[in-house]
Design a protein that fits this description.
heterotrimer; A alpha/beta (about 325); B mainly alpha (about 325); C mainly alpha (about 325); A: about 325 residues; 9 helices; about 30% helix; about 25% strand; B: about 325 residues; mainly alpha; 13 helices
């Protein structure tokens, strides 16, 4: 199937650690060690994992805000892995990003109008006379009033600032929007509002989403397909419903059982994961999850399990299968 | 008679109006949260009485410099050996006395102030311009560019400023412009460091990444995203720089290598004052007081600005 | 520790090279070139100048000149003065002790008084003393050093006659220590003024930062007396960043010394500089600029090493 909007294969990103007099490289942070993702047009892919699993690095690398160390990134079939800044410029209209922190993602010295006008000016999308109308239009689309454009970011609440960020991303009419933990910094009630807004916009503009998050309930609500990551590697990828009904990988099971269920009648067996997430500088041998896995076998600390398809559209990397 | 009324049956329409939530963004927060940034900064500034006083004196000095030819009672160059060494407050026509060549002190102070301030402010612009460019490039590009530029900055910092100024001043023909330029080109190092630090801090913020993601050119990022956020430390630096520049001009003019007579500056008015101590101490006292007052005011102003713009930087 | 020193030394080398390049560049950018005293003299013919150039080795390409000159600096051969042909190095070294004496006393006085004021201000924050000290520091920073010198001469030497108005010793006197001290007082105070202001401000802020740390609160809750806390716990931690201040102040110390020596007729390097300027003695000028810059580099290096000895966090990074 080659009609995926975004296809990522064996993406690797290592950050060098420098020490000593001459800044010798003494080690690498293995942020990403060969991940595979595929997002189809109009779909929402949710990328989940704990802190340090590399999901934010994945988002930034896909957009080429960070240069990949290896692997390929394909957008609409074109290999953009080694695109220069110049080449990326026209592509920047097709892929956009929404950031996690509503307080640092907007320039405090610019008015909201200037913030949203920036993409319009960079790509010359509208003539000067129509600029204000377009900005007002975008603001209304995200649920803010047009008067916001003369105000400064610090005058708005967190949720409102995320809306501004969304409006800015929409300004270029992108096809793909990567959301880097778009609601993690917001209060729960506001989270719902923003997620609903994003879904409405997806329908209206036929957008494709790659949502990165660590909160499974958020991911469940909004994703069609979910990809679980651990320590820079794929662990399990499946359609949303399949994942929740029948999680295959022990890590996914552990994550799911940690989600609180507001039903006092229900008694559950929790699978509690032992230990902490190891450092990405020296990942464990074999299957990276084996030190914490309750279903560990002998082969798990020697061989890395391949990431393969077990049922249609359901991929997992585990020696149990 | 109480205002309370018994509940009235609401119509269906009223009930619907109550349930409707106003659209997001049209709800206004209580007024006290809506103080614009400028007003907040002004309010913090006003709390420092010394800074406000400094600011007022600065304005007065600037007015004096601009209006020198209007308010000066005499021609500062007009010398008349008969009126030498008149002490201050003794002669209605020469309120602050006359100097060793019979020139009116008050007028000389006005015109001298104009020169000293012009040099100070021009030097400040040269300093800020140089420091800004170097700090911006260093902070934005990092890596080798940063290494080279910072090494250069560190090297320049090793030379004592007065030594450098004197040597450079001896090389050139000392005019107001050239003096201002050499002061400027020996004072930019601190500014560059401050700007670089600020740029490095701002670069980490998400909105800069957002600009990159939007396809902004490096030029645009440097000047539209980063620079506006570096204005606060730049303003503080600029003010303190004028103080230092006025001081430096007085040093080299005093030693005879700055502004040349007959053009008066507060510094060169002091050049020969030491020899006339017995006869006419006011020749030494008055220009020095003006220099100290001016430098002090700019310093207080700068300090107050620093506190008002970012309380975290408070000493 | 050793590694740290080596690392800092290696970092200092490019600075030394940079300083020498700039010094050399300035000498050659002087109008009339390094032989200005001859080239600008209309009575000397062009042929004579050519011969002089050959003698001084100035007809060779620039980089060769630089290398030869740099080698000379390194080995102590700094050329000779134009007038009198004395070795520049000797001429400068003659004046160094006087300047060192002045700078040393100035710095010591400044550190002592500055730290005292700063500590008191930090301990009694927001008191009248603190307010006066902070404002006073700002005012002191604004005085032109030479003018302050003139004023002190006027008051203490001319009007009150307590102290001499200049020079290092009384002419025809016995050059005893007491005489020296009498002559040293005013210049030292004048030089120290600006430094005291800076020390008091930095000390105050450093102590304020340390005093509010939790470990001080722990010490107090253990019942330790105020002065014990101050000296055993607060002082060592607050002092570390201040050592860097000493290094940063070095260039200013030289600048201030130059100005002070001129006012008080103190026979040090600063006075030599001004005299050499009048006579366009470029070798002397360049020699002194290099000396001061090198002193600053070495001073900063020492400050860093001392800092690393006191603060283990620095040498372990």
């Amino acid at each position: 199937m080659t009609d995926a909007l975004l296809e990522v294969r064996d993406l690797v990103k290592h950050f060098p650690i420098r020490r000593g007099l001459l800044s010798r490289v003494v080690g690498q942070v293995h942020a990403l060690d060969g991940i595979r993702l595929r997002v189809f047009k109009g779909q929402t892919l949710g990328l989940v994992g704990e802190s340090g699993c590399g999901k934010t690095t994945a988002g930034k690398t896909i957009l080429k805000l960070i240069e990949p160390t290896g692997g390929t990134i394909r957008y609409e079939g074109t290999d953009i892995t080694h695109y220069s800044r110049q080449q990326m410029k026209s592509l920047r209209r097709r892929m956009q990003i929404i950031f996690q922190d509503p307080f640092s993602s907007l320039n405090p010295r610019h008015t909201v109008g200037a913030i949203i006008a920036a993409p319009l000016e960079i790509h010359g999308l509208v003539p000067a006379s129509e600029k204000e109308d377009r900005i007002a239009d975008l603001l209304r689309k995200v649920g803010l009033s047009a008067t916001a454009m003369r105000r400064y970011p610090h005058e708005f609440s967190g949720g409102q600032r995320q809306r501004i960020g969304i409006a800015r991303a929409l300004a270029v009419n992108p096809r793909l929007i990567i959301g880097d933990e778009p609601v993690s910094a917001l209060d729960v009630s506001i989270q719902a509002q923003i997620l609903n807004l994003m879904e409405d916009l997806q329908d209206e503009f036929n957008l494709t989403y790659l949502i990165i998050a660590h909160d499974l309930s958020v991911i469940r609500h909004i994703s069609d397909v979910i990809a679980v990551m651990y320590l820079g590697k794929n662990v399990e990828t499946a359609a949303s419903a399949d994942l929740y009904k029948k999680p295959l990988h022990p890590y996914t099971e552990g994550l799911l059982s940690a989600v609180p269920v507001p039903d006092p009648e229900r008694s559950r067996r929790r699978m509690i994961l032992k230990g902490d997430v190891p450092s990405p500088i020296r990942p464990p041998s074999g299957c990276r999850f084996h030190p914490r896995c309750p279903k560990r076998m002998d082969v798990c600390d020697q061989e890395e399990p391949p990431f393969k398809e077990t049922a249609t559209g359901h991929f997992v990397a585990c020696h149990l299968y | 008679m109480s205002d309370r009324q018994p509940p009235v049956d609401k119509t269906a329409e009223d009930a619907q109006k109550d349930r409707r939530v106003p659209p997001i963004g049209t709800q206004t927060a209580p007024y006290q949260y809506y103080e614009s940034q400028t007003r907040r900064i002004l309010r913090r500034f006003m709390r420092h009485r010394l800074a406000v006083a400094g600011g007022c004196v600065v304005v007065l000095m600037l007015l004096m410099a601009v209006l020198a030819n209007v308010i000066a009672p005499h021609d500062p160059l007009a010398l008349e050996t008969e009126r030498r060494f008149i002490p201050p407050l003794q002669n209605k026509s020469f309120v602050l006395g006359t100097d060793e060549m019979g020139r009116d002190m008050l007028s000389r102070l006005f015109y001298g102030g104009r020169i000293s301030l012009v040099v100070g402010i021009a030097a400040m612009f040269a300093t800020i311009f140089t420091g800004l460019i170097i700090g911006l490039l260093s902070g934005f590009y990092g890596g080798k560019v940063d290494s080279v530029l910072m090494r250069f900055t560190d090297t320049m910092l090793c030379f004592p400023q007065v030594f450098m100024l004197l040597v450079l001043a001896a090389f050139i023909t000392p005019t107001v412009t050239s003096i201002a330029l050499i002061i400027g080109f020996t004072s930019w190092m601190e500014v560059a460091r401050i700007i670089r630090a600020q740029i490095q801090y701002i670069k980490e913020q998400d909105f800069v990444q957002a600009a990159v993601a939007l396809g902004a050119s490096e030029f645009r990022i440097m000047f539209k995203e980063l620079l506006p956020n570096a204005i606060a430390p730049m303003l503080v630096s600029a003010t303190l720089n004028v103080a230092n520049a006025v001081l430096m001009e007085s040093y080299i003019s005093f030693l005879g290598y700055g502004i040349q007579p007959p053009l008066a500056s507060w510094g060169n008015m002091l050049t020969n004052a030491q020899s006339y101590f017995d006869l006419a101490p006011w020749l030494a006292i008055l220009p020095g007081v003006m220099i100290t007052l001016t430098v002090m005011s700019f310093n207080f102003l700068g300090d107050g600005l620093r506190d008002a713009l970012d309380p975290r930087l408070r000493m | 520790m050793f590694q740290f020193i080596v690392k800092r030394l290696l970092q200092a080398i490019p600075l030394l090279i940079g300083v020498s390049i700039i010094g050399f560049g300035m000498m050659h950018l002087a109008p009339g070139g390094p032989l200005a005293v001859y080239t600008l003299n209309p009575t000397i013919t062009a042929q004579d100048i050519e011969r002089i150039k050959q003698v001084f080795g100035l007809d060779q390409p620039v980089y060769i000149q630089y290398l030869k000159w740099a080698y000379g600096i390194f080995t102590g051969n700094w050329g000779n003065t134009f007038f009198g042909g004395r070795p520049v190095l000797h001429v400068i070294m003659e004046r160094v002790p006087a300047t060192l004496l002045l700078m040393g006393s100035g710095m010591s006085l400044a550190v002592l008084i500055g730290m005292l004021i700063g500590i008191l201000g930090a301990v009694k924050r927001y008191s009248i003393f603190d307010y006066l000290a902070t404002t006073g520091a700002m005012v002191a920073l604004s005085f032109p050093t030479f003018w302050f010198g003139l004023m002190t001469i006027f008051v203490f030497a001319l009007k009150l006659g307590w102290l001499p108005s200049g020079g290092m010793f009384t002419l025809g006197g016995d050059e005893g220590v007491l005489d020296l001290i009498r002559h040293l007082i005013l210049p030292t105070v004048v030089l120290a003024l600006v430094l005291v202001a800076q020390w008091s401000r930095y000390t105050r802020s450093s102590f304020l930062e340390v005093i509010h740390q939790d470990y001080i609160r722990t010490a107090r809750s253990k019942g330790l007396s105020g002065s014990r806390i101050l000296f055993r716990h607060a002082f060592p931690n607050a002092v570390a960043p201040l050592i860097a201040l000493a290094g940063v102040q070095l260039p200013w110390l030289f600048s201030g010394a130059l100005v002070t020596e001129t006012i008080f007729g103190w026979p040090g390097m600063g006075r030599l500089f001004v005299d050499a300027l009048t006579m366009k003695e470029y070798p002397v000028l360049m020699g002194m600029i290099i000396v001061t810059a090198m002193a600053v580099i070495i001073g900063n290096l020492l400050a860093d090493v001392v800092n690393a000895i006191i603060d283990p966090r620095i040498r372990l990074e």
